[in-house]
Design goal:
It is built from six helices and three strands, in the order αβαααββαα. It has about 180 residues and is mainly alpha-helical.
C-alpha cells in the first residue's frame, strides 16, 4: 500500500531523478518557461516553489541551500537577482501549469510550466479583453443613438466629397479645350 508516499519517482533512480529535477529547475529559472510532461511538471513544482520561497531572504545560508538544490551558479544568481524581487509580495503559487495536449510519439500529456509573474501575455491579455467587451457593450447600448447621430454626418461627408470632384472635372475639361 502507498500510505503517505507522495513523491512521484518518475520511473528513475534517486540520483537520476535528483539531477533531472535540478537541471529542469535551473532551466525554468533561466528561461522562465519550459515545456515538459505533466508528471514531471508536477514533481518540479514541488521542487522549485520552496526554493523561490527561500530566495526571498537573501542571505549566505539561503544562497548555499539554493546552490545545493540547483547546482548551477548562473541559475542561483538569476533566482536571487531577478526572480525573488519580482515575487517578493506573493505568498506562494509561483508557477503555473498550462496543459498543451498529447505528444505525438508516445501520447504523453504535455504541458508548459512557467513562472507566474513573467508571462506578459497573461498579464496584459486580461486587460485587453476587458476593454474589448466594454466597447461592444457601449456600441450595442447606444446603437440607436449613434446611428441617428452618424447619419447626418455621413451625408455631409458624402456631399463634401462629391463637391471637390465636380470642380476638378470642370477644370480638366476647360484645360483640354
Amino acid at each position: 500500500m502507498r500510505h503517505s508516499r507522495v513523491i512521484n519517482h518518475l520511473g528513475r533512480t534517486s540520483s537520476h531523478r535528483k539531477s533531472m529535477l535540478a537541471n529542469m529547475a535551473s532551466s525554468l529559472i533561466l528561461h522562465k518557461r519550459i515545456t515538459t510532461t505533466t508528471a514531471k511538471a508536477k514533481a518540479l513544482k514541488t521542487y522549485v516553489e520552496p526554493l523561490i520561497t527561500k530566495s526571498k531572504e537573501d542571505t549566505t545560508h539561503s544562497r548555499r541551500v539554493a546552490f545545493s538544490y540547483l547546482k548551477d551558479k548562473l541559475a542561483v544568481a538569476e533566482l536571487f537577482r531577478e526572480v525573488s524581487p519580482k515575487v517578493g509580495e506573493r505568498p506562494g503559487g509561483y508557477t503555473r501549469i498550462l496543459k498543451t495536449g498529447n505528444r505525438l510519439g508516445d501520447n504523453a500529456d504535455m504541458c508548459i510550466l512557467e513562472l507566474v509573474d513573467y508571462n506578459e501575455a497573461m498579464l496584459g491579455g486580461g486587460e485587453a479583453a476587458k476593454t474589448k467587451t466594454t466597447r461592444r457593450r457601449r456600441a450595442t447600448k447606444k446603437k440607436s443613438e449613434t446611428t441617428a447621430a452618424e447619419k447626418p454626418e455621413k451625408e455631409t461627408t458624402e456631399q463634401a466629397s462629391e463637391e471637390p470632384e465636380q470642380p476638378a472635372e470642370e477644370t480638366e475639361t476647360e484645360e483640354s479645350k
